[in-house]
Amino acid sequence: MAAEADDYEAVLCVKPAVHVYRLPPRASNRGYRAAEWQLERPAWSGRLRVTARGTTAFIRLEDKASGELFAQAPVEQFPGIAVESVTDSSRYFVIRIEDGNGRRAFIGVGFVDRGDAFDFNVALQDHFKWVKQQSELAKQAENPDQGPKLDLGFKEGQTIKLNIASMKKKEGATGNTRPRPAGPGGLSLLPPPPGGKSSSPAFPSGEQPSSSLSAPVRLPGTPITDSLLSWPQPAAAPAAPATDVWGDFAKASGSAPNQTQANAGWVQF
Length: 269
Prior knowledge:
The protein is α+β, with helices and mostly antiparallel strands and 269 residues long. The protein has helices at residues 2-7, 114-142, 164-175, 247-254, 256-262, and strands spanning 9-21, 44-53, 56-62, 69-75, 83-85, 92-98, 104-111. β6 (92-98) and β7 form a beta hairpin.
């Protein structure tokens, strides 16, 4: 797996326009200054590409048109001697290039845009941050006992506080709830009214409920429904004698001939 990771090359950053400058001899150990590089006359101009293979990053200076390699700078640590910033600008860097024969030289690199210089710097920082994380994970995998352990114990003088009153209230609230009793057939019955009195119908003194009501017949496995329950029906009230509201009127009209006969001796005026 490590060999495959080393063979894989990732592109971290590509900038289309950079300039290369020759560095004058350093007069002291102070940092590099871009103002001393004759910025108006760059030695070479082209494209910059930052790649990574394994834990090593490579700064490649290539021709814009053909992609031919001009110089390459391997970077094994950042910040480090392979890449240094100048003291008077954020767009210029000093990099150490190498050839295949082991020869090294320092050159100045300048970006046309300040944002390109920022991207170049961040690409190198992110790569070596990832390298550091991979190294720490590998060490933890080799020695898992040496990693930080989670301590859940109480420190000296540390206390905790429990609210017992609220816990009792919650227990009392949950303890008062009683499940409803289940009737036959899985029907849920309502609890009895307060006082424990049943709601059975009251009969007058001396009377007993009629035994003519037959118990419902239910087949095994059939739930009890309203159609199977025989509810007591109220007794029919005695029919009142039929009265004819026109009877008196008929009697009155029927007595008119008798009245005529009785008054036959009278003379009508």
